[in-house]
Specification:
This protein has helices at 33-42, 77-95, 100-105, 107-117, 128-131, 217-223, 244-250, and strands at 5-10, 15-20, 49-52, 55-62, 65-71, 118-119, 122-123, 169-183, 189-203, 209-214, 234-238, 253-255, 260-269, 277-287, 290-299, 307-315, 331-335, 340-348, 353-356, 363-379, 385-392, 402-406. It is α+β, with helices and mostly antiparallel strands. A hairpin with a 5-residue loop joins strand 20 (363-379) and strand 21 (385-392). Keywords: Cytoplasmic vesicle, Membrane, Protein transport, Transport.
Amino acid sequence: MSASAIFILDLKGKVLICRNYMGNMDMNEIDHFMPILMKREEDAEMTPLVSRGSTHFLWIKHSNLYLVAMTRKNANAALVYSFLYKIVQVFKEYFKELEEESIRDNFVTVYELMDEVMDFGFPQTTESKILQEYITQQGHKLEVGAPRPPATVTNAVSWRSEGIKYRKNEVFMDVIESVNLLVSANGSVLRSEIVGSIKLKVVLSGMPELRLGLNDKVLFEITGREKSKTVELEDVKFHQCVRLSRFENDRTISFIPPDGESELMSYRLNTTVKPLIWIESVIERFSHSRVEIKVKARSQFKSRSTANNVSIMVPVPSDADSPKFKTSTGSAKWVPEKNVVQWNIKSFPVRYLKIIEKSGYQALPWVRYITQSGGEVIRHWNKTHLNTHTHTHTHTHPRLVAHLELAS
């Protein structure tokens, strides 16, 4: 059981468009949603689910819109929220931006999409590339008729069309890891984690089957291999193309990928890591109205790696007036709306992929590792904190090692 109805509301709670999927609820119940939400907000009791009697509202906010699923029974909440975020993604791929104006300007297309993505309360086709094959933003004359849904919609592989052909067959894979750290003033790491994702760009003909091997701790334990450089994956989320039953049995990630760009999986590693860039600061107070802050940044990755577009945020008092600064490298600017001085530095000094396809063509695999600082907060004695945001195009010590095969 999923959702009985889906609503898209403006910021005032007015219904812009809705779809009743099951016909088992009074659609006027949505009028109670915004008053309940406003009351919760006043009482500082905001929750992603609000109820009125036996009616439950599961909602998310995007831009100047509320997307609300309404249900009366014991719905699968995780499925409903996943669906709401997915249709936001579908709308954005159709209209570039999802906001009230784009809904009003594309009313017919939005209603067609809502009709296709869910049936009787259960999610159906949510792959925008497949939907775009038969739901377009162009009108159709009566004598021509509307395009028919492709056979892909009812196939087992609903995320990839049949008959795809390329002259050059390639697969590009990015392993992107964001390092989140909280460091004390004496340099000890209080909390650290890595949030990662694997993104694919697939340029392959036919219906290729790919296998992805990772340095997964559980997999190495099952196979009896040495596990000194393994990682323990947490909060793993897969694209629907991954065969979950096989992953649960032998930890093999086997799939027929969508054409073009997609995110194959995301994960989290709860592990101890050191900051990519270490920040030191000295704060001197010369009078009640003058403070001097000296900030020094030192890289902690190997010389062959480069951190690009480094941004160091140095907090200053909210009553600061035209602070002065100088840098040994890069540039600095005052950002008064955030009460920080932003120091920007432009440049701070594989396994194999195998592809299986019945026709046996040659395919080129490309694997790239990218590490970025998701949020590095360093605490200092006077409660001043420094946030560093870095991006490196070369991975220094990849925690997750990917091994992708095209089956033969």
